[in-house]
TrEMBL record:
Compartments it resides in: Cytoplasm
Top-level taxon of the source organism: Bacteria
EC number: 5.3.1.1
Matching InterPro entries: Aldolase_TIM, TIM_sf, TrioseP_Isoase_bac/euk, Triosephosphate_isomerase, Triosephosphate_isomerase_AS
HAMAP family (UniProt xref): TIM_B
Catalytic activity: D-glyceraldehyde 3-phosphate = dihydroxyacetone phosphate
Residues binding substrate, per UniProt: 10-12, 180, 220, 241-242
Isomerase is among the record's keywords: yes
Keyword Cytoplasm assigned: yes
Subunit relationships: Homodimer.
Record's protein name: Triosephosphate isomerase
Keywords: Cytoplasm, Gluconeogenesis, Glycolysis, Isomerase
Organism from which the protein derives: Arachnia rubra
Length: 257
C-alpha cells in the first residue's frame, strides 16, 4: 500500500513569530521554485505555540502547501490548568498534527506512555493527528533491547485507540542517542525498529491498519542522508529537528525524491 511520505520540521524552542515568518516564507518560495505542490509529500512545520497564529495566517493567506503542527498539548479539555493549551485551541488555529511523547518531554517533563496515550486521544477527538514519538536511549541500544523497549512504549501509547484512529496517526521512531548529536542511525537500524513497529500494529490491530499508519524516523536527518533512510520500506517520513530551521535544507529534505 502506498503511504504518502510526511516530512515534519520540529523547531523545538527556536524562532520567535517574526523569525518564523521569514523561515516559512523562504521555505515556501524554495519549494515553489522546485514546483512542490504538496500532492506527493506532506510538508509540516511545527513551531513553538507563540508562532502558531502568525504561521497559520501566513500559510492560509498565501495558500502555501505547508501544514501546521504543534509541539505539545494538554490532556485536559479546559479549566484551571495554568500554562496549558488544549487540543480544541490548537484545532481552531488550523493545527493538523501534534507531537506527543517526544524524548525531550519524557526526559524534562516526566511524560509517560500513560500521559502520551491520554494526549493522543484528545488530539484525535479534536480532529487532528498525533505524532507519537518513541525510541530508546543509548544504554538500552547497547544492551540490544531497543526493539522490545520501543514496542512496549507503542503498546502503552496506543492503548484504547481504535483501528481507524491508529490508521490516521503518525508514529515517529527517534533513537534518543541520535537526536541532535549528528549520530544518525543507519538506514538498517531505522528499518529494523520501524518494521517491528508496523508488525506490532498488525498484531494489535490488523494488517490494513498497519499498512496505513505512517512511521517516521527522527534523529540527525539532513538533506544528504534523507534519501537512503526514505528508501527503507517501513520508513514513511522524517521528524526533523535542527535541519528544519534552515529553509533550503528542510526544502531539500521535503523534496528527497
Ligand atoms: O523532533 C526532532 C528530533 O528530536 C530530531 O532532532 P535532530 O534532527 O536535531 O536530531
Amino acid at each position: 500500500m502506498a503511504r504518502k511520505p510526511i516530512m515534519a520540521g520540529n523547531w523545538k524552542m527556536n524562532l520567535n513569530h517574526v523569525e518564523a515568518t521569514g523561515l516559512v516564507q523562504k521555505l515556501a518560495w524554495t519549494l515553489a521554485d522546485k514546483e512542490y505542490d504538496g500532492s506527493s509529500v506532506d510538508c509540516v512545520v511545527i513551531p513553538p505555540f507563540t508562532d502558531l497564529r502568525t504561521v497559520q495566517t501566513l500559510i492560509e493567506g498565501d495558500r502555501f502547501p505547508i501544514q501546521l503542527g504543534a509541539q505539545n498539548v494538554s490532556e485536559h479539555d479546559s479549566g484551571a490548568y495554568t500554562g496549558e493549551v488544549s487540543a480544541g485551541m490548537l484545532a481552531k488555529l488550523g493545527v493538523r498534527y501534534v507531537v506527543v511523547g517526544h524524548s525531550e518531554r519524557r526526559q524534562y517533563h516526566n511524560e509517560t506512555d500513560v500521559l502520551v496515550n491520554a494526549k493522543a486521544a484528545k488530539i484525535l477527538a479534536a480532529g487532528m493527528a498525533p505524532i507519537i514519538c518513541c525510541g530508546e536511549g543509548l544504554e538500552i541500544r547497547q544492551e540490544g533491547r531497543h526493539v522490545e523497549y520501543t514496542l512496549e512504549q507503542i503498546r502503552g501509547c496506543l492503548k484504547g485507540l481504535d483501528p481507524e484512529q491508529v490508521a490516521s496517526l503518525v508514529i515517529a521512531y527517534e533513537p534518543v542517542w541520535a537526536i541532535g548529536t549528528g549520530e544518525v542511525a543507519t538506514p538498517g537500524d531505522a528499518q529494523e525498529v520501524c518494521g517491528a513497529i508496523r508488525q506490532e500494529v498488525a498484531r494489535l490491530y490488523d494488517q490494513a491498519t498497519a499498512d496505513a499508519v505512517r512511521i517516521q524516523y527522527g534523529g540527525s536527518v539532513k538533506a544528504f542522508n534523507v534519501a537512503e533512510i526514505m528508501a527503507q520500506p517501513d520508513v514513511d517520513g522524517a521528524l526533523v529537528g535542527g535541519a528544519s530551521l534552515k529553509a533550503e535544507e528542510f526544502a531539500a529534505i521535503v523534496l528527497f525524491a
